[in-house]
Amino acid sequence: MSIQVLRALKNAWASVPRAALGNLVAKLLIVALGLGITVLVARQGPRVQGAFALFVAVESVLLTLFSGLGLWLARQMSRQQAGQAVHARLMLRSVLRAALGLGLLASGVLLAVSWWADKMPYAQLWLLALAAPFLLLVPTATGLWLGQGRMWPLNAAQVAAPASVLSGLAVAWWFSQGAERHTSTVLVVLMAWVSGKSLVAVLTAIYALNDADRRDEALAITTDAPSAVWWNDWRFVATIGVTNVISLLNYRASLFLVERFHGLGAVGTYSVAVTVAELLWLLSQSVTVSAYSRIGNPDVRIASSMTVQAVRINVLATVLAAPILLVLATWALPEVMGPAYAESVAPLAALLPGVAAYAAASSLSAFYTNHLGRPHLSGAIAGLSLVVSFGLGWVLVPSLGALGAGVSSSIGYIVAIIVAYAVFLRQARLPVKALWTPALTRL
Questions:
Q1: Which of 318, 322, 341, 414 has the fewest Cβ atoms nearer than 10 Å?
Q2: Counting Cβ atoms within 10 Å, is residue 99 exposed (0-12), middle (13-18) or buried (19+)?
Q3: Looking at the predicted structure, is the pLDDT value of residue 403 above 80?
Q4: Percent of the chain scored above 70 by pLDDT?
Q5: What is the pLDDT of residues 161-203, one digit of tens each?
Q6: CA geometry: angle at 281 spanning 276 and 286, to 5°?
């Protein structure tokens, strides 16, 4: 049986674009840097780790709320790959301006929240307010390369951000040696986070503009060439933003439940379990990003075939990796991060089944958004998962703590992915057995 599984995994991988390998290497670097960040912060104590996790969750809400600009640009570039010439620089410039404007608007909201808040990390959101206009540049600018299927500049931008943050956090860790773990330590950590990411964001936007210029010149595209404008598709952009926020809350709402009932220390240990569990999505994200432009092909046969192939390898790889990850984490978490993080193991075990099943979600979401142009389907699936996991969490977390959060999240993922499969098969006009029968999707 194991030989058959390995053969199926090999066949599925052979059908995925080779760009996935480069993106996987980049993801491995990102994960290594991310784990370095987690270790440096976690060793400051569970309360500091908890405050940091909640701060990053708020930042992620900001980034995903306005992520529609970058995905709109990626969709336009995917169409160009299918033969429709477009003026890349004009489109990129317009979405970058929009990102700056929306970032300034978000800054005002964050400053107001910081002014009224009286506890960590919400009182420190003024730091995020200062960086907000710049942070939105990366997910917007990288839409240029995502739609073209060009992995190396996309990978470089994704790796540079955690690398710069880790450098800053290493300095913060050295600075705080011997100091009491209190608000000032959290402040130094958060300053290192936002300053590193802001620097990379500005550099990414500048490079993307120059790259768009070179691309237009190489294709002899002049300013007279047709150029789509994002505000004509503002409903699409807004829907993506709302959908992605719902998806993010699906992943992070449990953190706020744990804080509500058990405090920052419990959030610190649970957030480490979440971080480790989501390592299973390393390969699935790489496969989806590398296949994104082909999944967006207007031909439903090409798009659905690529989606199914990506789903197969995503699920097979995560199911095989989950028990290995749990065994390694059982030893590594208390040894590397400290004895307090032994409490992360039980919620990690509860999370892994749902996280493994949900590995298919990124490819299915790409089909809904990039091929169908219906991002609200992704939002509905994520919303279902959020309702199930949050509802169960409200019941289980008060008594079971982080373990209850892990169980409820895992059940939410499994319920939602079953529905997501059904929606995809209906839209692609494929039978259920197409998911495990390659002959039905072979072009």
A1: 414
A2: buried
A3: yes
A4: 83
A5: 888 887 877 776 666 555 554 446 677 777 888 888 888 888 9
A6: 135
The sign of the dihedral angle between the CA atoms of 60, 406, 363, 326 is: positive
Classify burial at 75, counting beta carbons within 10 Å of its beta carbon; exposed 0-12, middle 13-18, buried 19 or more.
Answer: buried
Length of the chain: 443
Backbone angles phi, psi at 67, to 5 degrees: -75, -10
Burial 188-202 (b: 16+ CB within 10 A, else e): bbbbbbbbbbbbbbe
Asked if 161 contacts 196 with a C-beta cutoff of 8 angstroms, the reply is: yes
Instruction: Provide φ and ψ at 19, rounded to 5°.
Output: -60, -20
Query: Residue 269 pLDDT more than 50?
Result: yes
Closest CA to 138 of 80, 189, 230, 73: 73
3-state secondary structure at position 441: coil
pLDDT (0 to 100) of residue 124:
81
Roughly what angle, to the nearest 10 degrees, separates helices 19-42 and 151-175? 10
The set of residues, in sequence order, having a beta carbon less than 8 Å from that of 231 and lying 6+ positions away, is none
- Please give the model's pTM, rounded to 2 decimal places: 0.69
Q: How far is CA 221 from the centre of its chain?
A: 33
Structure tokens at 195: 């300053």
- What the block records as the tokens of 150 is 């060009």
How far apart CA 17 and CA 441 sit, in angstroms, is 16
- Token pair, residue 137, equals 């540049």
Query: Bigger pLDDT: 377 or 347?
Result: 347
User: Which positions ≥6 away from 55 have C-beta within 8 Å?
Assistant: 121, 124, 125, 128, 190, 193
Alpha-carbon torsion angle 100, 102, 103, 108, nearest 10: 130
The per-residue pLDDT for range 203-240, each reduced to its tens digit, is 988 988 888 888 777 776 665 555 667 777 778 778 87
**Contact present, 189 and 48 (Cβ < 8 Å):** yes
pLDDT of residue 351: 93
Whole-angstrom distance, CA of residue 362 vs CA of residue 350: 21
Quote the pLDDT of residue 175.
62
State the DSSP code for 231.
Answer: G
Contact present, 253 and 324 (Cβ < 8 Å): no
One-letter amino acid of 104 = L
CA distance 364 to 372: 11
Asked if the bond preceding 334 is cis, omega within 30° of 0, the reply is: no
Cβ-contact 269, 341 below 8 angstroms: yes
Give the CA angle between residues 381, 74, 240 to the nearest 5°. Answer: 30
